[in-house]
């Protein structure tokens, strides 16, 4: 009797302790109510908004597709005018690619990645929120344009000179600035996700144990860093031509329309894989669950993800096979385009092998996965065909390619996303979606899809070009097009069934049981419905499928027997671990709800949107306000000095609350951001050398260039600014505030002087950027560098102010650490800029 | 699925050749391929645009690209060999999913080997271009 | 040619793809009904790739259906591992390598130069085609919106554009090549069958991109020579009084600011040459039949027929003048 009593006493005490922990834990993580709800930054809220918004954009673009199919149902139709049709196909492509394809992966990842990693939140929740609001504002702006008849009509690829010289009106500017704004948001998400995967894993989740989804996200976010910046650089050149007549793409003044095609497709082809890989990542999570066994070929899938990531950057010219490039270039890109099919095939066989080896359970998600496989394999095979340049000479820009790309994207992305929606819906809402509507939706979508797109292969080979608003009767296109149009509506009916099931009110429906699919990965650890804190305590991981491998994991997590079960200081906290072996190294305080990110997004959006209308004054004011808001955000919300050095994180581990330098997440974010920044800069330099290869006299006689004198002065001064910034970091570390302030103050002066000197080169030699592409190219490099030194200046002043205000100290030096890192890249920028604009004319 | 509560003996982990590991070796083979691809493309493009003109012979560029091919294959071979050494460290076989530094070490090695294989195939494919194309047309 | 001339074995596939009452591979713009050496080569490549692709698709999907629905029980995971190695790592590199070995040598073959053959210059302009042929006397003659070629001769095309990017494509004869402002691109074609085909602009070039087509006539060499001589000659003087009034209207209404009619004072160069416009197979860059009625419609409703076109609509012309103009132009054989 006595021992049992004692035991129940213990139990009671234990339960009371747990209750108290839960109460303390829920306080900081509480979701704001009322209108303040929109100040939430937690990954589950932002992820939900993000997912819903990108689905809305998908539905919008889908309606546009139905309008197109209605127009093309019969020959010589006048349902839509040529101009309207062109706007609609441009928006359909742009919205599907920029507002659905890429964002839906970011949305899903923001929502499920922290859960999968047993983290309470992503390392920069406010950055996610900022990205979301930017995405919303930019997306609504771009989509809204169609209702005023001013939507872009240059195709989603926006080839100049059609779009630079022959299309008046706002359309092209809306496309360029609206989407550039969204690209910035995508880059923000990429930074967030990379740091998330590398640094917020649960203890024990070594690099050989991380969920495959995380591997894919790591690869895809890395690809975004190298793929989006070339487009941003291209957008910059493009807008400079449209707004200020700098002739980058105007052949009359030495420009070349092909430069845009290179920059666009260096982005555009990896983009396809950026859309495809995360969807396959969903499949890689779903298949093992329904085969009820671990994936077979984990390492092979990692090979496939990493290999695809690299090879996909060697494919861009296969969109330019018909531009008259030398055969040898075509052959290189044909070869690479075939090579990329190998890793893609490996992934599919890994899934097949897992399905074969396991006991296969039928379900709606798995049905969508199987349908995806059937569609995608066909798309992949036609991809292998069009990758062979000679066949592409016929197929390029025809409906064959329309069919191919929809097989790839709908099979490789939409169907897996639908599977993911069904699969992860209970995780996000606590309720299961019903089976029956799922089967209906699948079969309508699958059947409708094939009726729409299978005939298009033949339509294309019979000679129907893409992007035509009409076609003549009696040359063989009629029946095929009518079939496609009918199929499109069946497909749409399937989507409607799916959407209705998702939005159907489910208040009376009971919550699903925990881990409803019997999955093995951590995201299913949560209660139904999920708690705002995400995970009760952060477990220690011993295998790839912890819920299968570790008995009692759920009970132990719930009882708070692992890391961070409590929030004694009432702060939002999550674990930071090492990159390879996931040893805990820091307890990171993550920020809570705020409206500052919303304001920052509104002002940034204003800067881009006002610039569209050429209201540069308003745009300037908006940009300044955005800068001020961001500074307030940084000043009040980041690099806070904690009240104590370290805390007990559970399981007898004591972790520091503050880290700077290469162990801190902020440093990683800065490093990753600057890698992306450098790839935009490299794209501009590529532009310079591209013109060198197409022109006999580029760069012209050195006398007409910026000369050597001023650029050399500039590089000297700027390297001085860099050196002093780095020294200031050391002086700060050694707690020498005087040296720090004087050094950084001097760095500011050198920076300003160096920037002036850099401008003096082209300015004093009278280079007029509107006259010819050479001065324009020099100016754009200088402009790029000057903007960056301007940002560097703000950072230097910010550090001085932080130290004055006592928000930075010798031990708490995140700010200066990150700024010094930024300045390393500025040193590279300065040297490269000067080497190209002043050095290359000397050797050429 | 196996129970993975018990770890392997720690002595094996202590014998690891390196204490701190990075992801760089993993990415090295595809990076070499990428470098090879871009340099070959640039060589051919510059050769045709600046040296022999639009209908010129590709001969010189072909030799250069042939040399690049050999160098790349050697480079990938070395990386793959190092990957293989890591993969075969100790005694365990795939799937390398134990929660030990040694298995993490083997996993990274195995992935390196696989990526090396892919890079070799991709390199050979690209080299086919100069086998079949002889002019700048 | 109809579906029956597609390679055997493909018929099943084609009839599946075409779903129902379709005419299979045929059509005036069909890449699957080759009338030229290049289209033939590409067509063969396509049918081979298509056959192998269908086979692979059936194998993979058949296997997936077997593993998930017919026999969903567990299987030996060691065998499954071999599936990855065999199906993922060994088979694809071999198949794709073979494809490259067959596909890449086509590149030099397709761009084989037209040594002593005819050289035609085509310029894509929004939204019509300016075509220039060399004359036997060593000059050039400018035509528009129609390409005629001698059968059996390898013909070179120099392609360019003064405004935006277009793409010159005659599916029956071969692949397409873009026309890029500031560059001259090249294409060679070798027609093998006499006949009338249809070409189109394949690169999106703005509002009326869909309405930028042309007729291609492949002729016996002798007939071609006669045709070219006739095209190089100045325009016929109008015979009927109606046509004469039409000519007067043409000159009086400013048409000559943009159009040339060789042998008359009309020497504009912005729009298509109309010297022998009546001899062409179509009007408005392959969108209208060529008769007096179509001319009248075109002149009166230009921007409705072709949205965004540079030519203004002459809706204000009196009925009589319009009829005369149409009669004159359609009579320029």
From TrEMBL, chain A:
Compositionally skewed regions (Basic and acidic residues) per UniProt: 9-23
Gene3D superfamilies xrefs: Cytochrome c oxidase, subunit III, four-helix bundle (1.20.120.80), Cytochrome c oxidase-like, subunit I domain (1.20.210.10)
GO cellular component: plasma membrane
Membrane-protein topology: Multi-pass membrane protein
Residues annotated as domain Cytochrome oxidase subunit I profile: 29-554
Transmembrane segments: 49-68, 88-108, 129-151, 174-198, 210-232, 272-291, 298-318, 330-355, 367-391, 403-425, 437-459, 479-503, 590-609, 615-635, 665-689, 709-728, 740-764, 776-800, 821-843
Subcellular locations according to the entry: Cell membrane
Domain Heme-copper oxidase subunit III family profile: from-to ranges: 591-842
Origin: domain of life: Bacteria
Catalytic activity: 4 Fe(II)-[cytochrome c] + O2 + 8 H(+)(in) = 4 Fe(III)-[cytochrome c] + 2 H2O + 4 H(+)(out)
GO molecular function, one term: cytochrome-c oxidase activity
Identification of the protein by name: cytochrome-c oxidase
Biological source species: Modicisalibacter xianhensis
Classification of source organism: Bacteria, Pseudomonadati, Pseudomonadota, Gammaproteobacteria, Oceanospirillales
TrEMBL record, chain B:
Transmembrane regions: 23-49, 61-81, 107-133
Superkingdom classification of source: Bacteria
Keywords noted in UniProt: Membrane, Transmembrane, Transmembrane helix
Protein name (Swiss-Prot/TrEMBL): Uncharacterized protein
Species of provenance: Modicisalibacter xianhensis
């Amino acid at each position: 009797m006595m021992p049992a009593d004692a035991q129940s006493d213990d139990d009671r005490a234990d339960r009371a302790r747990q209750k108290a922990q839960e109460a303390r834990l829920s306080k900081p993580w509480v979701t704001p109510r009322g209108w303040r709800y929109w100040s939430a930054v937690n990954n589950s809220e932002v992820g939900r908004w993000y997912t819903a918004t990108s689905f809305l954009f998908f539905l919008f673009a889908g309606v546009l597709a139905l309008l197109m199919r209605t127009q093309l149902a019969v020959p010589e139709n006048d349902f839509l005018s040529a101009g309207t049709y062109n706007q609609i196909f441009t928006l359909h492509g742009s919205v599907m690619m920029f507002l659905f394809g890429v964002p839906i992966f970011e949305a899903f990842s923001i929502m499920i990645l922290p859960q999968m990693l047993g983290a309470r939140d992503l390392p920069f929740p406010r950055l996610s929120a900022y990205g979301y609001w930017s995405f919303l504002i930019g997306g609504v702006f771009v989509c809204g344009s169609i209702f005023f008849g001013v939507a872009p009509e240059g195709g989603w690829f926006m080839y100049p000179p059609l779009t630079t010289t022959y299309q008046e009106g706002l359309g092209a500017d809306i496309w360029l600035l609206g989407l550039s704004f969204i690209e910035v948001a995508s880059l923000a998400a990429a930074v967030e996700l990379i740091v998330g995967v590398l640094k917020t894993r649960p203890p024990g989740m070594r690099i050989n144990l991380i969920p495959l989804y995380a591997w894919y996200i790591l690869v895809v976010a890395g690809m975004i860093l190298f793929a989006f910046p070339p487009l941003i650089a291209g957008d910059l050149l493009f807008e400079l031509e449209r707004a200020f007549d700098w002739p980058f793409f105007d052949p009359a003044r030495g420009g070349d329309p092909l430069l845009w095609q290179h920059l666009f497709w260096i982005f555009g082809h990896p983009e396809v894989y950026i859309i495809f890989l995360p969807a396959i990542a969903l499949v890689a999570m779903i298949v093992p669950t329904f085969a009820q066994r671990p994936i077979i070929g984990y390492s092979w899938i990692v090979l496939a993800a990493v290999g695809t990531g690299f090879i996909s950057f060697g494919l861009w010219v296969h969109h330019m096979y018909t531009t008259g490039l030398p055969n040898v270039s075509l052959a290189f890109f044909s070869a690479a385009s075939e090579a990329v099919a190998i890793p893609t095939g490996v992934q599919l066989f890994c899934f097949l092998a897992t399905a074969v080896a396991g006991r296969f359970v039928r379900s709606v998600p798995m049905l969508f996965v199987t349908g995806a496989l059937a569609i995608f394999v066909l798309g992949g095979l036609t991809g292998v065909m069009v990758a062979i340049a000679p066949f592409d000479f016929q197929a390029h820009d025809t409906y064959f390619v329309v069919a191919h790309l929809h097989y790839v994207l709908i099979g490789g992305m939409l169907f897996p996303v639908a599977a993911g929606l069904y699969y992860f819906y209970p995780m996000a809402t606590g309720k299961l979606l019903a089976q029956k509507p799922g089967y209906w939706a699948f079969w309508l979508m699958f059947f409708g899809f094939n009726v729409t797109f299978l005939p298009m292969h033949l339509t294309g080979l019979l000679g129907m070009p893409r992007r035509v608003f009409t076609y003549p009767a009696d040359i063989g296109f009629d029946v095929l097009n009518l079939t496609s149009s009918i199929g499109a509506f069946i497909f749409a009916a399937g989507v409607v069934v799916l959407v209705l099931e998702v939005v159907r009110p489910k208040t009376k429906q009971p919550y699903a049981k925990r881990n409803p699919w019997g999955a093995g990965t951590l995201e299913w650890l949560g209660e139904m419905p999920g708690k705002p804190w995400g995970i009760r305590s952060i477990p220690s991981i011993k295998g790839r499928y912890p819920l299968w491998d570790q008995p009692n994991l759920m009970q132990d997590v719930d009882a708070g027997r692992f890391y961070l079960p409590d929030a004694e200081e009432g702060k939002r906290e999550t674990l930071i671990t090492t990159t390879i072996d996931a040893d805990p190294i820091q307890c990171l305080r993550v920020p809570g709800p705020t409206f500052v990110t919303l304001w920052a997004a509104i002002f940034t959006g204003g800067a881009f949107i006002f610039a569209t209308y050429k209201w540069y004054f308003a745009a300037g004011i908006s940009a300044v306000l955005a800068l001020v808001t961001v500074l307030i955000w940084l000043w009040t919300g980041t690099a806070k000095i904690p009240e104590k050095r370290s805390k007990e994180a559970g399981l007898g581990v004591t972790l520091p609350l503050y880290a700077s330098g290469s162990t801190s997440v902020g440093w990683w974010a800065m490093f990753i951001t600057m890698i992306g920044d450098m790839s935009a800069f490299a794209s501009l330099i590529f532009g310079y050398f591209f013109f060198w290869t197409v022109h006999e006299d580029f760069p012209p006689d050195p006398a007409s260039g910026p000369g050597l004198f001023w650029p050399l002065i500039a590089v000297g001064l700027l390297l001085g600014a860099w050196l002093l910034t780095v020294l200031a970091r050391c002086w700060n570390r050694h707690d020498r505030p005087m040296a720090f302030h004087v050094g950084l103050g001097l760095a500011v002066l050198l920076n300003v002087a160096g920037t002036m000197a850099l401008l003096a080169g082209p300015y004093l030699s009278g280079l007029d950027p509107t006259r010819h592409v050479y001065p324009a190219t020099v100016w754009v490099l200088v402009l790029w560098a000057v903007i960056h030194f301007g940002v560097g200046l703000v950072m230097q002043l910010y550090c001085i102010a932080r130290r004055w205000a006592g928000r930075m100290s010798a031990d708490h030096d995140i700010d200066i650490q990150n700024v010094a890192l930024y300045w390393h890249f500025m040193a590279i920028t300065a040297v490269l800029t000067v080497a190209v604009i002043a050095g290359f004319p000397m050797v050429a | 699925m196996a129970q993975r509560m018990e770890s392997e003996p720690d002595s094996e982990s202590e014998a690891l050749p390196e204490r701190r590991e990075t992801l760089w070796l993993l990415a090295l083979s595809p990076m070499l391929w990428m470098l090879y691809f871009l340099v070959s493309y640039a060589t051919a493009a510059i050769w045709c645009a600046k040296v022999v003109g639009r209908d010129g012979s590709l001969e010189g560029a072909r030799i250069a690209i042939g040399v690049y091919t050999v160098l790349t294959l050697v480079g990938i071979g070395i990386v793959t060999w190092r990957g293989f050494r890591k993969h075969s460290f100790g005694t365990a076989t795939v799937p390398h999913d134990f929660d030990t530094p040694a298995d993490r070490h083997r996993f990274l090695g195995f992935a390196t080997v696989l990526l090396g294989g892919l890079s070799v195939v991709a390199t050979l494919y690209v080299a086919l271009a100069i086998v079949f194309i002889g002019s700048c047309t | 040619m109809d579906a029956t001339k597609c390679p055997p074995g493909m018929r099943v596939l084609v009839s599946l793809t075409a779903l129902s009452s379709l005419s299979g591979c045929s059509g005036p713009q069909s890449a699957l009904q080759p009338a030229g050496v290049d289209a033939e080569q590409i067509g063969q490549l396509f049918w081979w790739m298509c056959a192998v692709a269908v086979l692979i698709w059936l194998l993979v999907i058949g296997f997936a259906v077997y593993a998930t629905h017919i026999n969903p029980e567990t299987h030996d995971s060691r065998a499954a591992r071999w599936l990855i190695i065999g199906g993922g790592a060994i088979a694809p590199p071999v198949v794709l390598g073979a494809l490259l070995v067959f596909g890449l040598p086509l590149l030099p073959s397709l761009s084989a130069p037209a040594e002593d053959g005819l050289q035609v210059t085509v310029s894509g302009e929004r939204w019509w085609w300016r075509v220039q042929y060399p004359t036997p006397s060593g000059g050039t003659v400018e035509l528009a919106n129609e390409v005629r070629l001698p059968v059996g001769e390898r013909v070179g095309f120099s392609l360019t554009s003064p405004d935006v990017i277009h793409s010159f494509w005659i599916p029956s004869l071969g692949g397409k090549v873009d026309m890029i402002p500031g560059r001259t691109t090249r294409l060679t074609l070798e027609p093998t069958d006499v006949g009338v085909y249809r070409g189109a602009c394949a690169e999106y070039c703005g509002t009326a991109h869909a309405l930028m087509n042309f007729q291609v006539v492949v002729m016996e060499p002798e007939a071609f020579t006669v045709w070219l001589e006739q095209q190089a000659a100045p325009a016929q003087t109008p015979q009927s009084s109606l046509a004469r009034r039409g000519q007067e209207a043409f000159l009086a209404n400013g048409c000559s600011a943009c159009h040339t009619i060789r042998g008359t004072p009309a020497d504009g160069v912005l729009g298509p040459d109309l010297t022998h416009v009546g001899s062409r197979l179509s009007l408005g860059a392959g969108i209208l039949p060529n008769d007096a009625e179509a001319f009248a419609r075109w002149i009166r409703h230009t921007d409705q027929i072709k949205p965004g076109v540079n030519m203004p609509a002459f809706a204000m012309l009196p009925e009589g003048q319009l009829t005369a103009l149409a009669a004159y132009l359609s009579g320029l054989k």
